[in-house]
Amino acid sequence: MKTVVALLGLLAATSPALAQEKPCSAPPVRSLLPGGPGYVYPELKAQTLVQGQGAARVQWVAASWFGPMNGRLTALDCKGAALGSVESGYLRSMKAGPAVPGVGATVLVEATTGTGTGYREDMVRLVALVDGAAKVLWEQVSLKKDSAQRGYGYEERFSWRLAPDGARIEVTGTRQQDGKPGRAALPATSQCWKPAEKAFGGCG
What we know:
eight-stranded antiparallel sheet, four-stranded antiparallel sheet, mainly beta, 6% helix
């Protein structure tokens, strides 16, 4: 029995599939936010996404709160040191995004960025570490809805697709207008990768 236990321990130490990496360290979420000591973030919530392997892992911490709805996405190294942050809005989802030429791994974040009486706007963003700092590479409205005035309300929804070479993003959308059947297609748009700016921008 001791021989079996010893063999399993040896396999765990030498096999990447069996060995488990030590979890990264992270400071309290509140310490990553711009408010000073005692600042209140109503209904604060947080989600973490870890990318990479070993000591080079990057932790993306998305914090959101009410009063008003807002949020911040912060990148940390595996020791918990902040690498940079961007304002994100109130988080709806966060997942690993596609690899982008010259940058590599990205994070895809969808969040509510605007609210009002009968109004809501959601934005999707691609965020990455660029030259050691968090940067928004691309952003696009994913949902815009206004129902404040009956008979004049509308809803617009957008979807996007990254070209196989990672150098172009194509966006399509539809609009639903109060009092009109079906959804009407909106003009398609594209943005292309700008190597010098390390961001997506107008094509041409």
